[in-house]
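can u pls check wat happens w/ magnesium ion
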Amino acid sequence: MQAAHGRGPAVATGIKRVHPDSVVFTYQGDGDLASIGMAEIVHAASRGENFTVIFINNAVFGMTQGQMAPTTLIGQKTTTSPRGRTAAEAGWPIRICELLDTLEGPAYIAREALTTPPRIRSAKKSIRRAFEAQLAGEGFGIVELLSTCPTWWGMDPLEAIRHIDDTMVEHYPLRVFRDRPAAHDRPAGQQEEAGSDA
Ligand SMILES: Cc1ncc(C[n+]2csc(CCOP(=O)(O)OP(=O)(O)O)c2C)c(N)n1
Ligand SMILES: [Mg+2]
């Protein structure tokens, strides 16, 4: 089902409550989730709604021509911050996982990066875990995926991947912030080494 921009969590709430046996997820960009849909995501997480959020953070409004998003890094050039984002003018980039980690509602919160094969495998595990939480009725799960936008970052695809690993992860650390039935603060990006395959 297509929801109005930013309203995915509100629509998913209705669908999941009416059809509790359905597997429900939203797929949202950072402009969608962290800007226009900020209220919806915070309240759905706070209510512990039993669905899964796949949050694609590429630090820009990509589809609409690369405007600055709430997640745009300080100094990052976008079509609406051509000299680079400044905190004085536009505030600081918002860390969504950390923000939602202050709430009681969520069952699973993780940030992963779609860069190297090990990190992509780690992301796959987090996505699986978030869906398992939903199937077990544990409540709200969100997996943030740091993703490239070579076009609006003005980079080639490989440079863009390196930019995530070299720069973006400094501001957006890769971690499992919340895994309610299991350990708290399990490091993401290293889940394979943690041997949680069993
Ligand atoms: C209610 C509403 N407002 C604005 C838009 C225009 N719009 C389409 S995509 C988009 C933002 C895309 O940015 P993001 O969510 O970060 O996704 P990306 O393209 O970067 O993957 C906007 C504002 C819309 N479709 N609906
Ligand atoms: Mg985006």
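The mean pLDDT is 93.
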